Amino acid sequence: MNPLKFETTRPLDIIAIGRLCIDLNANEINRPMEETNTFTKYVGGSPANIAIGSARLGQKTGFIGKVADDQMGRFITGYLEKNSIDTKGITVDRTGAVTGLAFTEIKSPSECSILMYRDNVADLKLHPKEVDEEYIKQSKVLLVSGTALAKSPSREAVFLALEYAVKHKVTVIFDLDYRPYTWVDEAETAVYYNLAAEKCDVIIGTREEFDMMEKLLNIEESDDRHTASRWFSYRAELVVIKHGGSGSIAYTKDGMSHRSGIFPTNVLKTFGAGDSYASAFIYGLMKGKEVSEAMKMGSASASIVISRHSCSDAMPTEEELLNHMETAYYELAQHG
Amino acid sequence: MNPLKFETTRPLDIIAIGRLCIDLNANEINRPMEETNTFTKYVGGSPANIAIGSARLGQKTGFIGKVADDQMGRFITGYLEKNSIDTKGITVDRTGAVTGLAFTEIKSPSECSILMYRDNVADLKLHPKEVDEEYIKQSKVLLVSGTALAKSPSREAVFLALEYAVKHKVTVIFDLDYRPYTWVDEAETAVYYNLAAEKCDVIIGTREEFDMMEKLLNIEESDDRHTASRWFSYRAELVVIKHGGSGSIAYTKDGMSHRSGIFPTNVLKTFGAGDSYASAFIYGLMKGKEVSEAMKMGSASASIVISRHSCSDAMPTEEELLNHMETAYYELAQHG
Amino acid sequence: MNPLKFETTRPLDIIAIGRLCIDLNANEINRPMEETNTFTKYVGGSPANIAIGSARLGQKTGFIGKVADDQMGRFITGYLEKNSIDTKGITVDRTGAVTGLAFTEIKSPSECSILMYRDNVADLKLHPKEVDEEYIKQSKVLLVSGTALAKSPSREAVFLALEYAVKHKVTVIFDLDYRPYTWVDEAETAVYYNLAAEKCDVIIGTREEFDMMEKLLNIEESDDRHTASRWFSYRAELVVIKHGGSGSIAYTKDGMSHRSGIFPTNVLKTFGAGDSYASAFIYGLMKGKEVSEAMKMGSASASIVISRHSCSDAMPTEEELLNHMETAYYELAQHG
Amino acid sequence: MNPLKFETTRPLDIIAIGRLCIDLNANEINRPMEETNTFTKYVGGSPANIAIGSARLGQKTGFIGKVADDQMGRFITGYLEKNSIDTKGITVDRTGAVTGLAFTEIKSPSECSILMYRDNVADLKLHPKEVDEEYIKQSKVLLVSGTALAKSPSREAVFLALEYAVKHKVTVIFDLDYRPYTWVDEAETAVYYNLAAEKCDVIIGTREEFDMMEKLLNIEESDDRHTASRWFSYRAELVVIKHGGSGSIAYTKDGMSHRSGIFPTNVLKTFGAGDSYASAFIYGLMKGKEVSEAMKMGSASASIVISRHSCSDAMPTEEELLNHMETAYYELAQHG
Question: What is the pTM of this model?
Answer without folding.
Answer: 0.96
